[in-house]
TrEMBL record:
Protein name (Swiss-Prot/TrEMBL): TVP38/TMEM64 family membrane protein
Bilayer topology annotation: Multi-pass membrane protein
Keyword terms, alphabetized: Cell membrane, Membrane, Transmembrane, Transmembrane helix
Family as reported in the entry's similarity comment: Belongs to the TVP38/TMEM64 family.
PANTHER family, per database record: GOLGI APPARATUS MEMBRANE PROTEIN TVP38-RELATED
């Protein structure tokens, strides 16, 4: 019975991700009551299914991660939702990086020559600070960071750790918004221009700080 329930929930989540257009906030709100009922009666199964689907979505860069984050916020709250989504997103990002490194290296190198050059320069000059900044700021899309970082020498463990910390602020913002899911009118209500500027400044902070410290050391 539990296996059947788990499979049913997984299928429902997958179908929703496939057939709901990206940013379909109204549809997510429509099904919120059903999600709440599943979570109330089967909290562990719902969490496991959401985690598994989120990892797949993040790994394959399937549209729907934002909606899943909002859903997690509405069902699991800020603390549990942060643990669930942060780990799922980071596992997915790390798997995508490893797929790029070991399976798609030649294709990525040929397809993204220009951004790959920028990534290489950034990593050579700033190291992990650069990766941290990329996770905080919307300079490159999520999927592109994973693909391009697979071609750099960054280790898997460091990539996981820096990605986890770098993605936390945005995850917390969306989870917090998910707690008021029924009141949202659009995804634009979540990330205002001011919030985006804040993320950009946070991403630039470690790079600027490092350069300031390096300049003082040379004098």
């Amino acid at each position: 019975m539990r296996k059947l329930l788990f499979a049913t929930l997984a299928v429902v989540f997958i179908l929703l991700i496939i057939f709901l257009p990206p940013g379909s906030l109204a549809a997510l709100q429509h099904y919120q009551a059903q999600f709440s009922a599943w979570h109330q009666h089967h909290p562990l199964a719902t969490a496991l299914v959401l985690f598994a689907i989120y990892v797949v979505v993040a790994t394959l860069s399937i549209p729907g991660a934002t909606l899943l984050t909002l859903l997690a916020g509405s069902q699991f709250g800020l603390i549990q939702g942060t643990i669930l989504v942060a780990l799922a997103a980071t596992f997915g990002a790390t798997l995508a990086m490893l797929i790029s490194r070991y399976l798609l290296r030649d294709w990525v190198q040929k397809r993204f020559t220009a951004p790959m050059s920028a990534i290489n320069r950034g990593m050579e000059q700033e190291g992990l600070y650069y990766l941290f900044a990329l996770r905080l700021t919307p300079v490159f899309p999520f999927f592109l960071i994973n693909l391009l970082m697979g071609l750099t020498p960054v280790t898997t463990l460091r990539y996981f750790a820096v990605s986890l910390v770098g993605m936390l602020p945005a995850i917390v913002v969306y989870l917090n918004a998910g707690r008021e899911l029924s009141k949202l009118r659009s995804l634009g209500d979540i990330l205002s221009p001011g919030m985006i500027v804040t993320f950009i400044l946070l991403g630039l902070l470690p790079l600027v700080s490092r350069r300031i410290v390096a300049r003082f050391r040379t004098h």
